[in-house]
Specification:
alpha/beta; 2 domains; binds S-adenosylmethionine; DNA polymerase, domain 1; globular; 314 residues; Rossmann fold
Length: 314
């Protein structure tokens, strides 16, 4: 499959994925909430298609950069950027009583966050172990790695990093930090090599660093809290679309959207229905949408992306 538009909305900050598919899903939507502004690529494409956009990001740098990119839309009143966590949409005064025809969440981190060494998301040598999306929060990756007990560390690598030998890595981190606290990326890379051998490579580091990042930003819990809050901000027939890059996040989105689409959620053996007794809406994507071959070639980040969408009742 070819995708002539792949790359069109890229900036030096971030290359957004599956933009045309997102725009097509929200076709005709008057007001859209972009929960993850990042470099503003999706927002700009949605503005170009005629929608107004309110956008959120936890990261101040994303807000500042995207506001520059979308300054003319902001001036004309079609775009508003708000710094905040989409899991706390119920606590954001500017969003009180607001509902939308479409809501987009493009999860994870932007390329800029990974590329900026001082943000500490990358495993490039010497990068600080920080990984906070919102730098107002006080717990860095180094703080977690230096303070959690072995069982909690192991759970992070197993649950968020799909690491079957998570215990071994957790033990290695605890052993090393007793001599010298974890401080820079090299400390975690050395612990991974110490636990699993020198053959560990960039793919392993990316997966295990991502597990720490998910823990630092509490990303799965944020998504779990956010999904029903976002659903309840949809106008009738409004669409919620989520792009996930991590299997645990995609699973959560898939199961949640399926559950909302069932008329009955009573236990299977119960004879009489006592639940809500009607579906809250319908799944638009029976299977996740994935990036075109061309986009996967141009933008390797798009290879793990899974887009799912759900429409609330009319
Ligand atoms: C994949 S990037 C989004 C890229 C964006 N769609 C674009 O077109 O450039 C994810 C962004 O979501 C932000 N983010 C992640 N979790 C968030 C949350 N719980 N609340 C608000 N923003 C979040 C990150 O800071 C990052 O800037």
């Amino acid at each position: 499959m070819t995708d002539a538009s792949a790359g069109r909305w890229d900036s030096s900050y971030h290359a957004p994925v599956m933009v045309e598919q997102v725009v097509a899903l929200f076709s005709g939507a008057k007001e859209i909430l972009d929960c993850t502004l990042g470099g503003g690529g999706h927002s700009e494409a949605l503005l170009s298609s005629g929608s107004s956009v309110v956008a959120l990001d936890r990261d101040e740098t994303a807000i500042l950069e995207a506001r520059k990119r979308l300054a003319s839309s902001e001036t004309s009143g079609r775009f508003l950027a708000i710094r905040g966590n989409f899991a706390e949409i119920d606590r954001l005064p500017k969003l009180r009583d607001r509902s939308f025809n479409g809501i987009l969440a493009d999860l994870g981190v932007s390329s800029h966050q990974i590329d900026a060494d001082e943000r500490g998301f990358s495993f490039r040598p010497g990068a600080l172990l920080d990984m906070r999306m919102d730098r107002r929060s006080t717990t860095t990756a180094a703080d977690l790695l230096n303070s959690l007990d072995e069982a909690d560390l192991s759970q992070i690598f197993r649950d968020y990093g799909d690491e079957p030998r998570a215990n071994r890595l957790a033990r290695e981190i605890v052993r090393r930090r007793e001599r010298r606290p974890m401080h820079v990326s090299d400390d975690l890379v050395d612990a991974i090599r110490g636990a699993f051998g020198a053959r560990m490579g960039p793919g392993d580091f990316a997966r295990l660093f991502q597990a720490v990042r998910i823990a630092v930003n509490d990303e799965l819990h944020a998504l779990e809290r956010a999904l029903p809050l976002l659903r309840d901000r949809l106008k009738p027939s409004g669409i919620l679309a989520v792009i996930a890059y991590h299997s645990g996040e995609d699973r959560l989105v898939k199961h949640t959207m399926r559950e909302w689409s069932l008329a009955c959620i009573c236990p299977p053996k119960q004879l009489q229905c006592t639940c809500r007794g009607h579906a809250l809406g319908e799944l638009i994507t029976k299977r996740a949408i994935i990036a075109s071959d061309e986009e996967r070639t141009i933008n390797p980040r798009s290879r793990s992306a899974r887009l799912r969408a759900w429409r609330t009742a009319a």
